[in-house]
Amino acid sequence: MDRHIADLLAAAARKYDYPKTRLTLASATYPAAFEAQGVTYGIINQAALTYPQFEAGIASDLRSGNPERRQLGFLSVIFWGHLSRNERFALHKAKLAAHMEDADLGAHLTAVIARVDAGEFGQALAACEPLHGVGSTSFASKLVACLAPERCGIFDQQIYRYLAAIRLEPNKSALEAWLDEHLGAWAWTAQGTFSSGQTVAMSRGYQAWCEFLRHAASQLSDLAPRPSAPWRAIDVERAIFVCAKDANRKREKARATRPE
Length: 260
Fold this sequence. Notes:
Elements: H1 3-15, E1 21-25, E2 41-45, H2 51-62, H3 67-81, H4 87-97, H5 102-117, H6 121-127, H7 137-147, H8 157-168, H9 174-188, H10 199-223, H11 233-257
Antiparallel strand pairs: 1-2
Helix pairs in contact: 1-11, 2-3, 3-4, 3-5, 3-7, 5-6, 6-7, 6-10, 8-9, 8-11, 9-10, 10-11
């Protein structure tokens, strides 16, 4: 990575502003939609927290021995992941996931956490398959990344579409050429759904993606150091996400205005 690429990623990372909003316990204003499930979780905006603090709170819940906190952390990941659409839809998706029996949820989360702690991030992604609400790389990777943001990142549709378009783009920007050169085929094939029988490819691709992010984070910590903390894998992913979202929007606009 050269200085120019590092500066581009650093600038993109500063634009990342996804809401730090999650579910919370024992709220007097919990969503009525959860009442039928007996889930008394409310919504809390934690904008005052840093992203590392926000992620640490969810990870602490996911790793808790308390069944209620464990479910809270899991549903918070589902809720947070769907906020890009709107809060009502995010609540609906969290409600759908809330009916899983806690004994099953605890066992499955334990399996995911064991793989994460062993550095087997692709296998951790695969271990998410039985969980309600995480049927694809987009959401399974959100769960894994919350558990180890220093070493993992999210791989969602925005990034997948961006990388796919880059491969076909004859006139790449400097950043796009760098991404296309360094990601490799397995990272590009990480996207998929568990129901499609692509789990092996998803697992390998996600492992490669996380390895790429960690290597890039190490380089960025040297080339574009931050005053507060070193770059993490998830910080690199978020910089790429910002670039992906902007590029995808421009491509969609160009297609919409193209004459028939």
